[in-house]
Amino acid sequence: MEPSKHGVLDTGERKLLKPLVVAAIPAYNEEKTIARVILLARRHVDRVLVCDDGSRDLTASLAEELGADVIRHGKNLGKGAAFKSLFGKALELAADVVVTLDADGQHDPGEIPHLVKPVLSGDADVVVGSRFLTGNNEMPLYRRFGSRVLNGLVNRFGEEKVSDTQSGFRAYNRKALLEIDVTAQGIGVDSEILMKAYGNDVKIKEVPISCRFKGVEGSTYNPLRHGLDVFASIIRYASQRRPLLTFGLPGSVILAAGLMLFVYVLQIYFTTGQFAIGYMFVSMIATVVGVFAIFTAIILYTMANLMQKT
Fold it and tell me: What are phi and psi for residue 170, nearest 5 degrees?
């Protein structure tokens, strides 16, 4: 069947076609596991997209030999950049559902239909595979703790709470891909997507998934790097959405503390005749930082309002 004008299928034509389900896999030096992940995923999707994010091994070659559409990055740009390339390609293909999963074998491609079902039924725009809704979870205790801390930070931006904000095993419909603009380059992309989904009237649902950690090489990023990257994404997003709260409030508190300390320095001087150089130095730094944060908040708030009006 030929598509309608402008290359877009109308409602009647869509109903006659099977939904196009695409697996999107970011990969970096995953030659040991990429083949298995692709072969298992192909049982449940129509096409497999792999973004080779600057790998130095046979990841891209193996993916191509197995029939995957491979997007190559000349150098390692990060998970967020890989997602941006994968989502862009999926939109070009007019995919109805895009399932993201890791290339290291951590996720079970056999659970793809479980994630896709709520999207196809219209119950959700984004389905998150949660590792905390099932007892089959090999996640180490320290990672569980870190994940819960990050969950609390990310969930502050939405009324609908997600139990596993760091899960990369998800399903998205076309609306979600169009509404959510990926800007994060690194690991913080999963958090950024959820925060932007909260602010764009995107329906989110969770389903339980299993997850392998034992015996999976490179299955996770360095926990400290992961946490810092997610925290940076949260600050970046918060500065765009709530600049007065993110910078203005802390800046005001710091400025007030600096001024109070300055008053204390003056009090010491008039009482004892001694000049507290250390306290004065701290007071000056706090005052400068506080003023800078307040001006940053005002500038970002003004820019955000101007962008909304244009």
Answer: -140, 165
Is the pTM here over 0.90, yes or no? no
Looking at domain 5-241, does it have CATH number 3.90.550.10?
A: yes
Report, in angstroms and rounded to the nearest whole number, the Rg of the chain calculated over CA atoms. Answer: 24
- Exposure of 237 in the CB half-sphere (CA atoms within 13 A): 29
CA distance 69 to 158: 35
Q: Give the SS3 label for residue 186.
A: coil
Alpha carbons 74 and 11: distance in angstroms, whole number: 39
Q: What is the pLDDT of residues 117-171, one digit of tens each?
A: 999 999 999 999 998 887 656 666 767 777 777 778 777 777 778 999 889 999 9
Scored b (16 or more CB within 10 A) or e, 114-144 reads bbbebbeeeebbbbbbbbbeeeebebeeebe
Query: 62 is written with which tokens?
Result: 């193996």
Cα gap 72→38, rounded to integer Å: 16
d(CA 38, CA 60): 12
CB–CB of 182/74 below 8 Å? no
* Three-class HEC string of 62-85: HHHHCCCEEEEECCCCCHHHHHHH
CA torsion angle for 305, 189, 183, 218 (degrees, to 10)? 160
